[in-house]
Amino acid sequence: MPKTSTLHVRMEPAIRKKAEKVLKDLGLTSSEAINMFYTQICIQSAIPFEIKNNKKEVKKEKKIKSLSGYLSQYANKDLISKESGIWEMEAHE
User: DSSP assignment, residue 53?
Assistant: First the structure.
């Protein structure tokens, strides 16, 4: 049997309770889920999911939709998708 080590984690009790219910429904223990998480970190050399700052993303999406709405009113309908990419690049700057 391979050696194991212990990991101590501090977290909010409510989050732990909710997560453990989901894991139980999936047939996983916390240890199995954490091992899966750490394995994916090793495989991908990164956090295995996207981390976003929601406030910035929401603001950015609103700006893009606003520009796209403007574009759709005045642009050549055949070029909207091509021009949208340009507007999106400007919105991200």
Answer: -
Rg value, the chain, Cα? 22
21 and 11 in contact (C-beta within 8 Å)? no
Whether the predicted pLDDT of 70 surpasses 60 = no
Query: d(Cα 23, Cα 36) in Å, to the nearest integer?
Result: 12
What's the whole-model pTM score?
Answer: 0.54
Nearest to 54 by CA among 65, 62, 64, 45: 62
User: How do the domains of the chain map onto residue ranges?
Assistant: 13-44, 54-92
Cα–Cα dist 25/20, whole Å? 9
Show the beta-strand stretches assigned E in 1-93. Answer: none
31-66 core/surface letters (b: 16 or more CB in 10 A; e: else): eeeeeeeeeeeeeeeeeeeeeeeeeeeeeeeeebee
